[in-house]
Structure formats: C-alpha cells, structure tokens
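Hey team,

Sharing the DUF3397 domain-containing protein run so nobody has to redo it. Sequence (126 residues) first:
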Amino acid sequence: MRDYIYYTLALFIAFPFIVTFLAYWITKLTKKHTWKAVHNAVQWSAIFFILGVGILLQLLFDQSFFGWIILLFLISLAGILIHQYRNQTEIEVSKAIKIVWRSAFLLFSSAYIILSFIYIIFEVLS
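Structure output:
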C-alpha cells in the first residue's frame, strides 16, 4: 500500500499537468463553477510544479536548488508585503500568499515545460 502512494506521488511530480487536470475536473464536477475550478487546480498543482522544477534542476546541474526556491518565495512575499504597506493602510498576509502562490504556478509551470525540453534534448544528445 505504501508503494502505491509513493508511485502515485512520483507520477504526480513527474507529470504535474495530470494533477492540474484532475483538480480542475473534480472541482468542476462538484461545484459547477469554472473559475473556482481553475483556482482550485492552480492551488493544488503548484506544489507539484515546484517539486518537478526542483528535481529537473537537480538532474540537469547535479545540485539542489530547493533552498534558492524557498528564498525566491520569501523575497517575493516580502516584496508584496512591502508594496501593500506602502500603498494600503493594512497588510493582508493571506492575500499576499495567494498572489505569490498563483505567480509561482505561472512561473514554475513555464519553467517545468522549458526544463523538460532541455532535459530531453540533453538526454538524446548524450
């Protein structure tokens, strides 16, 4: 049973678009609201794109980049909180986290596609 869970997680990390599609499809069936389904799919699949990009970077460069990824998140969150502090009277941490998380989905899904192609090209050429 434990192996089944490990293999499922490995599949979702290797192919995070499956998680995006499944989360969208399940939310669409249960709530019947398209935009809620899109937001739910983004929220649930972002972590798999982040892990996938970290693993692809590790495979390409033989070095772990997870520390740099965490630093990128912290700097992005700090930048958004500073922007909120200067432009608004209140700081909304939950809103800032949502912005960082949705931006991370866009950034890491794009990076995942690019790094996947680079990794495939390197494997074919070597």
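DSSP finds five helices and no strands in the chain.

Ping me if you want the raw files.
A.
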